[in-house]
User: What shape does this take?
Amino acid sequence: MLDRNRPAPEQPEKSVAASFGMNLVVVSLEAREGSSPLALLRGDMSSAGFGPYRNMFMNYPGLKARVRTADRRPSLLIKSSASLEGGRYFIAKLDPDQDDRVRSLKISSAKSGLQAVFGGSDRGLIAPDPDWVVLFEAVEESPGLWRVSPKQDLKPGEYGWYVSFNAGGPQASGLFDFGVD
Assistant: This one.
């Protein structure tokens, strides 16, 4: 017999997210063409350079996002149990790498990593480089539903909603990617 009074087991994606210190986040792109759900991608870390001139990158598969828009100022609708404040959420610019067939996001340099380790920065080790983000406005339209809009038109290229949860290391971060044509 089924025990109807017992609560349903927690969904696997919620328990995995919780184990990384993450909140469940659902993102869709809102543009002139309509609404499209965005999938969460995990990246692979790489580095380039030497010593204090070394840069860290998070690399995502493919040269282009599957979801694309011609709208230069699309919005993101984000369902999240957490506030979008606190330096964990970013609209990130990605750089396609033809040789490796990935899109790269500059995460940090060795210098900024040391600053984060020794308390000189609240951005953390896996936050995007400030030159690789787009400023945005976030408005909570209803409890847990946020509309995020870039403060300026986006140039054609690859972008994503980057979620950084420092507690779980690099694999606790993710990207909801999209492209602007």
Residues 26-180 form one domain. Confidence is low (pLDDT under 50) at residues 1-22, 110-124. The chain is about 10% helix and 45% strand.
